[in-house]
Amino acid sequence: MLEIQDLSVKYDTIRVIHGVSMNIKKGELVSLIGANGAGKSTILKAISGLIKAETGSICFLGKEITKLPSHGIVSGGIVQVPEGRQIFTRMTIEENLKLGAYLQRNKKVIAQNFERAITLFPILKERLRQLAGTLSGGEQQMLAIGRALLSNPKLLLLDEPSMGLSPLMTQQVFDTLKILKQEGITMLLVEQNAYDALEISDRTYILETGSIVMEGKSSDLIEDANVKRAYLGGD
Ligand code: ATP
Q1: What's the 60 CA to ligand 1 centre distance in angstroms?
Q2: Which InterPro entries match (predicted)?
Q3: Mean pLDDT (the chain, rounded)
Q4: What pLDDT, in 10s, does the model give residues 120-178?
Q5: How far does the centroid of ligand 1 lie from the alpha carbon of residue 82, in Å?
Q6: Which of 54, 89, 135, 141 could form a cystine bridge with 8, CB 3.0-4.6 A?
Q7: Which residue's alpha carbon is at the smallest distance from atom 30 of ligand 1?
Q8: Global pTM value
Q9: Which distant-in-sequence residues (6+ apart) come within 8 Å of 175 by Cβ?
Q10: Does ligand 1 come within 6 angstroms of the Cβ of 13?
């Protein structure tokens, strides 16, 4: 579904992504893990068209999207749930959700997706008219994911959904991702929380200072001695 080949990205003169290749197949949940500053968010930005690739290509559903503007990429079905959630705290939960449907003209599809989002997140359903700023961090993350669902994604990009959340809230958010996966949504999950990301995903790429240093089935990597030592706090 998504094929990234030999991607390099730089900010001004400093190259931060060095020849990264990755792929995601339909229905897969793939995680991208790595330390602070490794370049995970930069890869997501390149996929979403928020930053331009220096070299390399990104193809989605067989079509090259490397040079498309970000609105063209979103309307093609790649939707990002941004780091830090970026919900509108002074708008209601319902208004925030409906903002996700801004590219959708078909009212029936909007209604279906709205229903799906609030069924998935009952906490939002109970509080549709409440201001989004009154939600807890975990609930705001759920709202951000719900809003992304309103735009009918074919591929959902999640940037550190566990950031700033308690272990319990993190668990709830990850349980939601499992349900989305069962529903057939393809996802790329960027996480610093390596253990949870490996547990939930089918395959994982490990990024170090802008290069992929390991990749494989998550169930294999979670047992790997080097991965345990470097990312899982093991010995
Ligand atoms: P984090 O988990 O902290 O978000 P990350 O793995 O997502 O880290 P990036 O945010 O992609 O990493 O950053 C990769 C590198 O690029 C870092 O060295 C960072 O300082 C640098 N960088 C990020 N954004 C910019 C920018 N707008 N201008 C210059 N350098 C940047």
Answers
A1: 24
A2: AAA+_ATPase, ABC_branched_ATPase_LivF/BraG, ABC_transporter-like_ATP-bd, ABC_transporter-like_CS, BCAA_Transport_ATP-bd_LivF, P-loop_NTPase
A3: 90
A4: 888 888 899 999 889 888 888 889 999 998 888 899 999 998 888 888 888 888 988 99
A5: 14
A6: 54
A7: 11
A8: 0.89
A9: none
A10: no
